[in-house]
Design goal:
- With about 700 residues, this protein is of the alpha+beta class.
- The protein folds into 3 domains: about 290 residues, Distorted Sandwich (Beta-galactosidase, Chain A, domain 5), CATH 2.70.98.60; about 230 residues, TIM Barrel (Alpha-Beta Barrel); about 90 residues, Immunoglobulin-like.
- It has 11 helices and 38 strands.
- Strands 6, 7, 8, 9, 11, 12, 14, 15, 19 and 20 form a 10-stranded antiparallel sheet that branches. The protein has an 8-stranded parallel β-barrel with strand order 21-22-23-26-27-28-29-30, surrounded by 5 helices. Strands 5, 10, 13, 16, 17 and 18 form a 6-stranded antiparallel sheet that branches.
- α6 packs parallel to α7.
- It is globular.
- Bound molecules: (2R,3S,4R,5S)-2-(hydroxymethyl)piperidine-3,4,5-triol.
- (2R,3S,4R,5S)-2-(hydroxymethyl)piperidine-3,4,5-triol (DGJ) binds next to loops.
């Protein structure tokens, strides 16, 4: 049983970890333990007795409360903040009851006086070594309650100090930089206020004791299953208690909870490992892969002409690209931006989701048919949440965008954001996109979003205006979810000018993420490594393009083969030699893609922290096959030899490694330094195979 009661509390057990909490002598719901799974129920420490330090804090300030409210003389980050109808802004949550139901535990709390129930939900993903938490708020009274903060969880680290926080930061064209910084007394805030997840930070944390590396050290890590404004507040209190708060961003947020209504905060997932950042990532990768809409399905090699043609698409040019792509072994042809009504540039067209009559006089069918005849699937780009002022849709419905009545509507890339909190906007998009999907044999959709929010108003809404942050995201989920349900075979990709919407919420609808508009090979090595902290290789679409053309085609292919391979170059410019080489790499990729897309990933040398040496290895789940990619982007002076030690092999089984003589045990290969004879901007791919006997 993954959930047990223990004296005065509960323990959630996964295959290797445990998380315990319970009631302390003062009746407060208190964190007790998070770490390796222990053999006996008595092993879990009791909830600490409250300590009284001085009149400046009450004992609850020093208590690691599981879900602290805003009450008492305490100043730790609270998980919730509400205002009751009479203006009271204080929440005293008391334990009411607990329910265990298989892998789920529900803790019911209620306010000591007011009609507010809060249920803390816990779900144990035992085999995946992860715990999921979220909170549900219910108004049982007869007057509205305003919720102003509703975090999903407060994750407590063992008492101690010298913790270090790792997170992912960046910007458009430069996403997923790994940051590691000490946590000291105070609050470190990571957040999005952009109505979407954002390029600038990913909702991810990993906390270690200051010296973990890829293979060793305790790491506590987690994320949020949400695609809108989010917040991580990592607090070290004045009594050395470290907590990671995670949930909806409370900045400009409010929700009116009417009598009888409930509000559900999104889920947070977290885990603990003893063997470093690599193990944390692999834990998350397995979880994601199992839950993707199409599970562990292998992704096809795609071609996308965006970087080749930009908006200049029409039936003839796309057919030409499709014919060349098919000859290389491409399996999925995706037409990007530019195909719909009036879309000759980025100043017009968004919102008018039907084929442009000049470019596609007979609709999309002739192109789709030709692509299918060539043996490929057909995919299409859309940006449903946006509208250009120069569009039929905006001319008809100028009130459909997010705006304030008396403010200029700030444009980004000449576009405004449709208010997807509105049901009529959602229905318009469902109708138009459903028509395109129903009338054409479309196997893949790239869903883009190319600006962040401004003037976050919804003038016609009579409810609490600040609900827009959540209702918008729920609207995106409804449109996307409805279309996905009606067209279950379609593979969806989440894109937001590259990696602006990469999160576990969107991966309930999408199978893939376009992680960056930066497709340059060397830059990409770092971006891919950052992305892999949280997401598996099969979700990472990676194109070979003409960017950073000083790199060899081999190097560029090797970089993209580390994910779900695609091509985004101008194929009409590739000569016969280049096409032959591409054909060869695509064929190799098809052989090894199950290892890459479904196997375990080991980051052997970091692109972000290394000395111009990057190495990534993938190992099949049965450990019979593996593939190693190594890249050199800089040779320091004095030159350092580039060696790797393989990982993830069965120590007793025997393997061959391409480029090295003989068969040796996995143990030998994992304890021998293998020299990679790479010059600057060189790369290599080595296949590793188990041999019999
Ligand atoms: C931004 C995306 O990241 C690109 O790949 C491309 O689809 C453009 N938008 C199209 O406008």
């Amino acid at each position: 049983m993954p959930v047990h009661t223990i004296p005065d509390g509960w323990v959630l057990e996964t295959a290797h970890t445990a998380y315990a909490f319970g009631l302390n002598p003062a009746g407060l719901l208190t964190h007790r333990y998070w770490g390796v799974r222990l053999p006996y129920p008595d092993d879990y420490p009791p909830a600490p007795a409250p300590m009284n330090w001085a009149s400046f804090n009450n004992p609850s300030h020093l208590t690691p409360e599981e879900y602290p409210g805003t009450n008492d003389i305490k100043f730790v980050e609270p998980c919730l903040k509400v205002t009751f109808a009479d203006g009271t802004r204080d929440t005293v949550l008391r334990f009411d009851s607990a329910e265990i139901d298989g892998e789920n535990l529900r803790i019911h709390l209620r306010d000591a006086f007011y009609p507010l129930n809060v249920t803390l939900h816990y779900r144990v993903h035992a085999e995946r070594d992860l715990i999921e938490r979220y909170a549900v708020f219910v108004n049982t009274g007869d007057q509205p309650i305003t919720i102003e903060r509703a975090f999903s969880a407060q994750w407590h680290l063992p008492i101690g100090d010298h913790y270090r926080l790792s997170h992912l930061s960046g910007r458009w064209f430069d996403e997923f930089n790994i940051q590691r910084e000490p946590l000291v007394q105070g609050v470190k805030v990571l957040e999005s206020r952009r109505i979407t997840t954002g390029h600038h930070h990913a909702p991810f944390f990993a906390v270690d004791r200051g010296h973990a590396d890829e293979e060793s050290g305790e790491v506590w890590f987690g994320t949020l299953v949400w695609s809108g404004n989010w917040k991580i507040a990592a607090e070290v209190t004045d009594f050395a208690s470290t907590r990671i708060n995670i949930g909806l961003n409370d900045w400009d947020f409010a929700w009116r909870l009417n009598p009888g209504e409930s509000f559900t905060a999104p889920a947070s997932l977290a885990g603990y490992v003893q063997n470093g950042f690599g193990a944390a990532s692999r834990t998350l990768h397995d979880y994601v892969r199992e839950r993707l809409p199409h599970g562990d399905a292998l992704h096809k090699v795609l071609y996308n002409s965006w970087e080749a043609t930009f908006f200049d698409v029409d039936v003839n040019s796309q057919t030409k690209f499709a014919e060349i792509a098919a000859g290389l072994g491409v399996e999925l042809f995706v037409m990007d931006d530019g195909w719909f009504h009036g879309r000759d540039h980025d100043r017009a067209g968004l919102g008018d989701w039907w084929p442009d009559a000049k470019k596609f006089p007979n609709g999309l069918s002739p192109l789709v048919k030709r692509v299918n005849e060539l043996g490929m699937d057909f995919g299409l780009w859309v940006e449903p949440e946006m509208v250009n002022p120069d569009s039929d849709l905006y001319r008809q419905h100028p009130d459909w965008v997010i705006h304030f009545a008396n403010r200029e509507r700030t444009e980004g890339r000449n576009q405004l954001i449709l208010n997807l909190a509105r049901a009529d906007v959602q229905d318009y998009l469902i109708d138009h996109l459903d028509t395109i999907l129903s009338e054409n044999n479309i196997a893949f959709i790239k869903w883009d979003m190319n600006r962040n929010v401004s003037e976050p108003g919804w003038p016609s809404y009579e409810g609490e205006q600040r609900e827009i942050w959540v209702r918008y995201v729920e609207g995106v989920y409804r449109v996307w979810g409805t279309l996905a349900a009606r067209h279950p075979k379609v593979i969806w990709q989440s894109c937001s000018g590259g990696g602006g919407r990469a999160d576990y919420g969107i991966l309930r609808l999408a199978d893939q993420i376009w992680i960056s508009d930066n497709t340059g090979g060397t830059a990409r090595l770092g971006i891919q490594e950052g992305f892999s902290q949280l997401f598996p290789a099969n979700t990472m679409e990676a194109w070979v393009t003409d960017m950073e053309k000083h790199l060899s085609l081999t190097f560029r292919f090797h970089v993209s083969m580390c994910g779900s391979l695609g091509i985004g170059a101008n194929l009409t410019h590739w000569n016969e030699r280049e096409r032959n080489e591409a054909r060869r790499w695509i064929a190799v990729y098809k052989e090894i893609r199950p290892i890459i897309q479904q196997g375990d990933q080991y980051r052997l040398h970091s692109a972000q922290f290394g000395e111009g040496r990057t190495a990534v290895q993938y190992v099949s789940k049965d450990q019979r096959e593996s593939v190693l990619f190594a890249f050199r982007t800089h040779v320091p002076d004095p030159a350092q030899p580039f060696t790797v030690r393989l990982r993830g092999l069965n120590p007793q089984a025997r393997y061959t490694v391409e480029g090295f003589d003989g068969a040796r045990s996995g143990l030998a290969w994992m304890n021998t330094d293998l020299l990679m004879p790479l010059l600057n901007f060189d790369s290599t791919l080595r296949r590793i195979r188990q041999v019999e006997g």
